[in-house]
Specification:
The complex is a heterodimer of chains A (292) and B (403).
Chain A: H1 16-27, E1 31-37, H2 43-53, E2 61-64, H3 75-86, H4 91-104, E3 110-114, H5 116-122, H6 124-134, E4 138-141, H7 153-158, E5 162-163, E6 165-167, H8 173-180, E7 187-190, H9 203-214, E8 221-224, H10 230-236, E9 242-245, H11 247-255, H12 267-283
Parallel strand pairs in A: 1-2, 1-9, 2-3, 3-4, 4-5, 6-7, 7-8, 8-9
Chain B: E1 16-17, E2 20-24, H1 30-44, H2 47-61, E3 67-69, H3 71-77, E4 81-85, H4 96-109, E5 114-119, H5 123-134, E6 139-144, H6 145-150, H7 152-160, E7 164-168, H8 175-188, E8 193-195, H9 206-214, H10 216-229, E9 235-239, H11 244-250, E10 260-268, H12 279-282, E11 284-288, E12 290-295, H13 320-327, E13 332-337, H14 338-352, H15 358-370, E14 379-383, H16 392-398
Parallel strand pairs in B: 4-14, 5-6, 5-8, 6-7, 9-10, 9-14, 10-13
Antiparallel strand pairs in B: 1-2, 2-12, 3-4, 11-12
The chains are: A alpha/beta (292), B alpha/beta (403).
């Protein structure tokens, strides 16, 4: 299969992701992108969280597709996947959850993030069609580097889904062109060489990396991995267009479980409260280092 | 099925064996995986590297390993002439070290200063810890908690050799989870760390690189059987988890079309019970651990736990080249149960004075099924890829003996 050329969309055809980043740019503020795993700790609680995130200040949402073997994730996200699967999460339910979210929210971009095998197992064509119909806007597939995404990316693009590529500290100048060629929506910059929810990168290094990426692309840049607090999130969006926070949010879900792993009363409020404080940090940040 | 010109042409430059293989890794690892590929390609063509490898294989590992005619087994089954390729006589007691020596020499060429590995039965962990000690590099081995429990002697061996053994408590607590954890370590330590993968799986170039290093097995068999019998063998048999010992035995013979090749998967409690490790018999194609191959998985694409009495076969996947050889029908893939392997373990010990590892005991269980039906001039070579000292506790408990 050959790569289909990414056709630039006209303004009218532009999806929610492009519209949202355009609006953030006009407002001159950074975007807050919370991550939760679909179905964690159970379907109902997870849907309540998803529906509440916009009110808590989410500008875009990343929804994790649970996988038994999430090799790029640290213990916190691994455990969330395990909880979700134990509670009966399946790809069909994840898509149904997106559909339920879309019934109330027509604007907030939603990106599915995860690993390739559940997508491949579902069938690429069926998955893309169903995801699109459910109201998904983009995909991030961690274990599909540019070298292997030919069987999914063109199909997704054709259906109008953005295919978000990841850049990392190990993506050098030689390789960056490869990563950007065919990327859409935004670039996800992984701020550390490591797995999710472990160490945090120095803000200076993140800023430098974001500026380096900007020399190569006009796509918005979101930064994730290792960003845990409202302060760190605020610092990151002084350079980046958006910041992704996953593990520290998911940790709050874990903190709201009883000994049997069931959600205690107040879990949703506590998690959304923390999401709100992250959003506040991001939205109050000074946009200093950002290119005009 | 269309006849191919050669079965030895793979993988292509992107690391694909037709639909299988590839490089399904996170972007963080991608530049490093490409670097390993370049380093291996250079080393492969460098006579100095080949000379160094040959030196260690001969003087440190103890190669060539004998090709031994099993007189009593042959007599017992009353059919084919059965030979064992004695790779259990290698230093550290299994074929795993052939690959570890090769990879650590690559790591040194790349200037890497830290070694990591995953292990199931502990044989690959021991072999990695051994070469890390030899070359004075710090070594961390990831091992599932469940495997640590059933392979205590190998855990202690690794520690004696100076390696750090990290218990993995996630998922099924076995080999697949150890692999996940090793990949996570690698992502976090790309600068200085080399990951010595123990089988013909993982992202390209590992499946091809490990196959090449293990091909010393088949290359020796070819010379040895010519010297002993004056002709090539008729049938090759090997057990298969990830598939490195099978690949090493088969690869040099793939284009000798008259030779029948049989790989024996672990059927655990029986294929019909669902508690097995037979990815080809009971799985379907998917993507895990950097490559596309046959995987045990549910209808949602979630990876299932494998089951085998043998920790070394207890893996829900199989090397991508095997997936391809299966589809093109060059190699036959069959299976043997825990019980059949246990029986083979015991009769091999008594008849030949060789205590086999539970892994090749699966291969022997299949030999027992077919040897009697074959004519007396039929030459069958089975890879005795590991010795069974590590398994005596497991076997004792299975046969009701307390040690």
């Amino acid at each position: 299969m050959r790569a289909s050329q990414a056709v630039p969309l006209s303004a009218a055809q532009e999806g929610r992701i492009a519209r949202r980043f355009a609006r953030l740019k006009t407002a001159d503020r950074g975007g807050f992108v919370p991550f939760i795993t679909a179905g964690d700790p159970d379907g109902d609680t997870s849907l309540a969280l998803l529906k509440g995130l916009t009110g808590a200040g989410a500008d875009l949402i990343e929804l994790g597709m649970p996988f038994s073997d999430p090799m790029a994730d640290g213990p916190i996200i691994q455990a969330s996947s395990q909880r979700a699967l134990k509670a009966g999460a399946r790809m069909r339910r994840t898509l149904a959850m997106v559909e339920a979210f879309r019934a109330d929210d027509g604007e907030t971009p939603l990106i599915l993030m995860g690993y390739y095998n559940p997508i491949f197992s579902y069938g690429v064509g069926a998955f893309v069609a169903d995801a699109r119909a459910a109201g998904v806007d983009g995909l991030i597939v961690v274990d599909l580097p540019p070298e292997e995404d030919e069987e999914l990316r063109p199909v997704a693009r054709e259906a109008g889904l953005d295919f978000v590529r990841m850049a990392t500290p190990t993506t050098d100048d030689k390789r960056i062109a490869r990563v950007l060629d065919g990327a859409s929506g935004f670039i996800y910059y992984v701020s550390i060489t490591g797995i999710t929810g472990t160490r945090s990168a120095a803000i200076a290094a993140v800023t430098e990396a974001v500026e380096r990426l900007r020399r190569h692309t006009d796509l918005p840049i979101a930064v994730g991995f290792g960003i845990k607090t409202p302060e760190q999130a605020a610092a990151v969006v002084s350079a980046a267009d958006a910041v992704v926070v996953g593990s520290s949010l998911v940790e709050k879900i874990f903190a709201g479980l009883d000994d049997s792993g069931a959600a205690r009363a107040g879990l949703v409020e506590a998690v959304l409260g923390f999401a709100g404080s992250l959003a506040e940090g991001v939205h109050g940040a000074r946009r200093g280092a950002r290119a005009p | 099925m269309q006849e191919l010109n050669t079965y030895r042409g793979g993988p292509d430059e992107r690391g694909h064996f037709d639909a299988y293989g590839g490089r399904y890794v996170a972007e963080t690892l991608m530049p490093l995986v490409l670097e390993v590929e370049r380093a291996y390609a250079q080393a492969k063509d460098d006579p100095a590297f080949q000379e160094e490898l040959a030196y260690y294989l001969k003087h440190y590992v103890g190669r060539p390993s004998p090709l031994y005619f099993t007189e009593r087994l042959t007599e017992r089954f009353g059919g084919a002439r059965i030979y064992f390729k004695r790779d259990e006589l290698n230093h550290t007691g299994a074929h795993k070290i052939n690959n570890c020596v090769g990879q650590i020499l690559i790591a040194r060429r790349m200037g890497k200063t830290r070694i990591i590995a995953e292990t199931g039965a502990g044989q690959h962990g021991v072999a990695t810890a051994t070469v890390a000690a030899l070359f004075n590099l710090p070594c961390t081995v990831y091992m599932g908690c469940k495997d640590i429990e059933r392979q205590a002697p190998n855990v202690f061996r690794m520690k004696l050799l100076g390696a750090e053994v990290v218990p993995v408590a996630s998922g099924s607590k076995t080999l697949k989870d150890a692999l996940n954890e090793a990949l996570r370590d690698w992502v976090a330590n790309v600068e200085d760390t080399f990951y010595i993968i123990g089988t013909v799986a993982g992202p390209h170039p590992y499946p091809a690189m490990v196959r090449d290093f293990q091909s010393v097995i088949g290359n020796e068999v070819r010379e040895q059987i010519m010297a002993l019998e004056g002709r090539l063998p008729d049938t090759l048999v090997a057990c298969i988890g990830g598939g490195s010992n099978a690949m090493g035995l088969f690869y040099p013979f793939l284009d000798d079309r008259q030779i029948r090749m049989i790989a024996v998967e672990a059927a655990g409690l029986g294929l019909e019970t669902g508690k097995h490790a037979a990815s080809l018999a009971g799985g379907r194609p998917g993507v895990l651990h950097g490559n596309r191959t046959y995987l045990l998985q549910d209808d949602d694409g979630q990876i299932l736990e494998a089951h085998s009495i043998s920790a070394g076969l207890d893996y829900p996947g199989i090397g991508p080249e095997h997936a391809w050889l299966h589809d093109v029908e060059r190699v036959e893939y069959v299976s043997a149960t825990d019980q059949e392997a246990l029986e083979a373990f015991q009769f091999c010990s008594r008849l030949e004075g060789i205590i086999p590892a539970l892994e090749p005991a699966h291969a022997l269980a299949h030999v027992a099924k077919i040897a009697g039906e074959l004519p007396p001039d039929h030459l069958l070579v089975m890879n005795m890829c590991g010795r069974g000292d590590k398994d005596i506790y497991t076997v004792a408990s299975e046969v009701g003996v307390e040690l």
